[in-house]
Amino acid sequence: EQAAMKSFDERALEVWADTVESKSDAARSENPAALLLNGHVKLRTKDGLEALMDSATYDDASGMLVTPGRVTFSRSRMSGEGMGATYNEHQDVLSLLDQSHVRVLPDEHGAGALDATSRQLTLLRPAKLVELTQNARIVRDGDVLSADNAVLHMTEDESRLTKIALHEHARVEPGSGKE
Questions:
Q1: For 144-163, what is each residue's pLDDT tens digit?
Q2: Hey, what's the torsion of the CAs at 91, 23, 29, 27, to 10 degrees?
Q3: Are strands 78-88 and 50-59 parallel, antiparallel or unpaired?
Q4: Which of 17, 28, 77, 127 qualifies as a FRET site for 158, CA 20 to 30 Å off?
Q5: Which of the 8 DSSP states describes residue 18?
């Protein structure tokens, strides 16, 4: 079974892995300074954000989890993936560093679906924003929106989009049958 690293009693974060190796700081011997996590690493926040990866390093002092490889994440109707990621526990910010892709599934009425890609993606959870950096491309309701950078404004539960802001070289291509 997997080794649990954190519990919800202490913080709003749980992390599991097949193996956990601690790198202790002599001054803080009772509390590891860094943890090396390998095999089926899973991060989960109290409100249900989950991220999966093969390996990661967690620094307790900074609250930073870093993974060099493929990562997937999900919460409610939103999910995504990318290569390389950081999660800042103190700020509740997930950043995908390359080949980022995020999806929002349609709601119960079949509306609100979204599929977006960019080089980098930052999920600023307290602000309910998704920043798409470098070559942002968003497909929504048949329309294709593109820009150098984009910001998606989400509802409080991160299940729906409320606004899209396109920045630098913005372009909107209406879907078929639209003008």
A1: 999 999 999 988 887 788 99
A2: -80
A3: unpaired
A4: 17
A5: S
